[in-house]
UniProtKB/TrEMBL annotation:
SUPFAM superfamilies reported for this sequence: GntR ligand-binding domain-like (SSF48008), Winged helix' DNA-binding domain (SSF46785)
Protein name: GntR family transcriptional regulator
Keywords noted in UniProt: DNA-binding, Transcription, Transcription regulation
Annotated ranges, domain HTH gntR-type: 4-75
One Gene Ontology MF term: DNA-binding transcription factor activity
Database matches in Pfam families: FCD, GntR
Organism per entry: Mycolicibacterium aurum
Length: 215
């Protein structure tokens, strides 16, 4: 029996390797090599791969696991789904956002402003938005949004790690935080939509310019 701690560590480590591009897209995942990499048996590796299949980061092809690559159309569809849900979810949650949530969002905003670690930035970014979303009391919707975000984060990481340009994203985060403080539901809906549109364009432009296989 694999301990929960070992299993969680392997899932986290493999997710990190996929997110950062240490394991590229469309790469066949070897159970034995991953077991050696993490110093574990194949059982927690198999369980980790199953968990990441559920998240959409890994796909099974004829029973063989591969790291997932999104096409331009798939990435567009991903952001279309996010734009259909997240602005409304944010507006729905806002009446339940209180002082504690504003303080949390401000802390995550400061982390994003100060850190030079891309993974830490992405984690703070996810928590910044999730702080609002969770106040909507829509657990299934939030789970779906989180899965879509994880798929997008792989590509956002690649851009941020190379270019390191997050200033415009922070301007948008500041505006979202301001709307949350003001309790302006319509404004935060519009800002969230614009934020997603910017991120989509940000990622696609980079990939089209730098990844010949992205089509």
């Amino acid at each position: 029996m694999v301990s929960a701690t070992v299993g969680t560590a392997v899932v986290s480590g493999l997710r990190h390797a996929l997110l950062t591009g240490e394991i590229g897209a469309d790469v066949r995942l070897s159970y034995s090599k991953l077991a050696d990499k993490f110093g574990v048996s194949r059982i927690p590796v198999r369980e980790a791969i199953q968990a990441l299949v559920a998240e959409g980061l890994v796909v099974m092809v004829d029973g063989v696991p591969y790291s997932r690559r999104l096409s331009v159309l798939e990435l567009q569809e991903l952001f279309e789904m996010r734009m259909a849900v997240e602005p409304h979810l944010t507006q729905m949650a806002l009446p339940q956002v209180g002082r504690a949530e504003i303080i949390q969002m401000s802390r995550y905003y400061e982390i994003m402003s100060d850190t030079t670690d891309v993974v830490e930035w992405l984690e703070a970014n996810a928590n910044f938005h999730a702080t609002i979303y969770h106040q909507a009391n829509r657990p299934m919707t939030i789970e779906h949004v989180d899965q879509l975000r994880k798929l997008a984060d792989r590509y956002l990481y690649l851009h941020l790690a190379v270019i390191g340009n997050v200033e415009h994203l922070q301007v948008e985060h500041a505006a979202i935080l301001g709307a949350a403080k003001a309790g302006d539901g319509q404004r935060i809906n519009e800002l969230t939509r614009t934020h997603l549109e910017t991120s989509h364009e940000f990622i696609v432009r980079y990939l089209l310019a730098n990844d010949e296989s992205f089509a």
